[in-house]
Amino acid sequence: MVYIITFLQIGIFILNLFQWSNMSKQKEVDNSNKYSILLPTYNEVQNLPIIIYLLVKQMNQSNYEYEIIVIDDGSPDGTLEAAEQLQKIYGKDKIILRPREKKLGLGTAYIHGIQHATGNFIIIMDADLSHHPKFIPAFIEKQQSKNYDVVSGTRYIGEGGVFGWDFKRKLVSRGANFLTQLLLRPGASDLTGSFRLYKKDVLEKLINSCVSKGYVFQMEMIIRARQCNYTVAEVPITFVDRVYGESKLGGSEIIQFARALLYLFATT
Amino acid sequence: MTKLQEWLAGLGILFAIWFHLITSKDHSTFANENYNVILYSPIVFVLIFGLYAASVVLYRVFTFNDCEEAAMELQKEIKEAKEELLKLGFKFKEMTN
C-alpha cells in the first residue's frame, strides 16, 4: 500500500524534474526592451484613471521603455472618454487607444491590442486594480534572469495572496487548483491568473492555438505554453479583489472551469 | 500522449497487477496470506488519497495569505492618484453608487 503511494510520488517527482529541466535554458540580458501593457476594459470608468496613474508612476520610476494600450469593448459607462482624457494628459506615445464596438472576448482583445504594439514584450493585467503595477519590475527581472518566454504572476506561492476572499471562495480556488495540478501537471501554480508577461511572438502564437473563451482562456494559455516547450517562470503577486464594481464567482464560472479542465485533460 | 491517456495507462497497469493478484491460480504465499488486504486495497487507496487531498486543500485554504496591507496601501494610492489626476486636469465622472 505505502509502497504504491511512494512509487506514484516518485513518478510525479521525476515528471516534474523533466519539466523543470526544460525550463532552464540560456541566459541573455537586454536593456533595449520595450514593454507594451495591454489593458482590456469593460465598464472601468472608475478604475482606469487610477490604474493608468499607478502604471505611469511605476514605469517612470523603474526607467523601462513602455506604452499602455487600452482596448475598450464599447463600455456604456464612458471608459473610453476617460481614456481619451488620460491620453491628453500622458501623451499619445504612452497611452494608445484601440477601442472596439462591442464585447468580443479576451483572446481577440489581446490580438487586437498587439497589432499596434511596438514593444517586444507584452504585459497583460486586469484594469480593475486587482493587479498592482508595483509587481511589474519583478516580472521583468525574472524574465531577464533566464530569458523566459512567459512570466506568470501567482497568488498561491511565497508572498503571494489574495484580499477580500471569504472561506468559501478560498476553498473553491484551492480545490480547483489542487485538481488542476493533479490532472494536468502544468508546471505553474496559478493557472487562472491574468497578470503575465509574454514575449510578443510567443503571446501571438499561444493565442492562436487557444480555443477557450472567458477567464479559462488564461489556463489554456499556460497549458499550451508547456505543450510548445516555452519556458515559464513565476513571481508571487497579491490580488486585491475589486474595489469598485462586483467580483464574480458563480455556478457558471465553475462549470466553465470544469469543462475547460476536462477538455485540456483529454486533449493535451 | 495526452494527460488522459497517461492516467488511463497508469491506472490500467495498477488494475492489471491487482486483478492478477486476486485471480491468479498459482498464488504465492504472500498473495494468499494477504488476500483480503489486496482485495480491498483499491478502496483503501482511494480513501487515503481522498483524506490526503482534503487535508492538503484545507491546509492551503487556512494558510492562504490575506493581503490586508496590500489592500490598505492600495486605498491610499487611490486617494493619491485622484488628487494628482485632478491637478493634471483630469475630470472624474461622478460616482453613481
TrEMBL record, chain A:
Pathway it works in: Protein modification; protein glycosylation
Keyword list, A-Z: Endoplasmic reticulum, Glycosyltransferase, Magnesium, Manganese, Metal-binding, Signal, Transferase
Gene3D superfamilies: Spore Coat Polysaccharide Biosynthesis Protein SpsA, Chain A
Gene Ontology molecular functions: dolichyl-phosphate beta-D-mannosyltransferase activity; metal ion binding
Every Glycosyltransferase 2-like domain range: 36-206
Record InterPro entries: DPM1-like, Glyco_trans_2-like, Nucleotide-diphossugar_trans
BP-aspect Gene Ontology terms: dolichol-linked oligosaccharide biosynthetic process; GPI anchor biosynthetic process; protein O-linked glycosylation via mannose
EC number: 2.4.1.83
Cofactor(s) recorded in Swiss-Prot or TrEMBL: Mn(2+); Mg(2+); Ca(2+)
Compartments, record wording: Endoplasmic reticulum
Top-level taxon of the source organism: Eukaryota
Signal peptide per UniProt: 1-26
Reaction equation(s) it catalyzes: a di-trans,poly-cis-dolichyl phosphate + GDP-alpha-D-mannose = a di-trans,poly-cis-dolichyl beta-D-mannosyl phosphate + GDP
Gene Ontology CC annotations of this record: endoplasmic reticulum membrane
Enzyme class: transferase
The protein's role, per its UniProt record: Transfers mannose from GDP-mannose to dolichol monophosphate to form dolichol phosphate mannose (Dol-P-Man) which is the mannosyl donor in pathways leading to N-glycosylation, glycosyl phosphatidylinositol membrane anchoring, and O-mannosylation of proteins.
Subunit field text: Component of the dolichol-phosphate mannose (DPM) synthase complex.
Entry's family note: Belongs to the glycosyltransferase 2 family.
Protein name: Dolichol-phosphate mannosyltransferase subunit 1
Organism, scientific name: Psylliodes chrysocephalus
Phylogenetic classification of the source organism: Eukaryota, Metazoa, Ecdysozoa, Arthropoda, Hexapoda
From TrEMBL, chain B:
Pfam families for this protein: DPM3
Primary localization class, coarse: endoplasmic reticulum
Functional pathway: Protein modification; protein glycosylation
Topological relation to the membrane, as annotated: Multi-pass membrane protein
Coiled coil: 64-91
InterPro entries the record matches: DPM3
Membrane-traversing stretches: 40-62
UniProt keywords, alphabetically: Coiled coil, Endoplasmic reticulum, Membrane, Transmembrane, Transmembrane helix
GO biological process: GPI anchor biosynthetic process
Compartment(s) of residence: Endoplasmic reticulum membrane
CC annotations in GO: dolichol-phosphate-mannose synthase complex; endoplasmic reticulum membrane
Assembly behavior: Component of the dolichol-phosphate mannose (DPM) synthase complex.
Role of this protein: Stabilizer subunit of the dolichol-phosphate mannose (DPM) synthase complex; tethers catalytic subunit to the ER.
Family affiliation: Belongs to the DPM3 family.
Protein name as catalogued: Dolichol-phosphate mannosyltransferase subunit 3
Organism: Psylliodes chrysocephalus
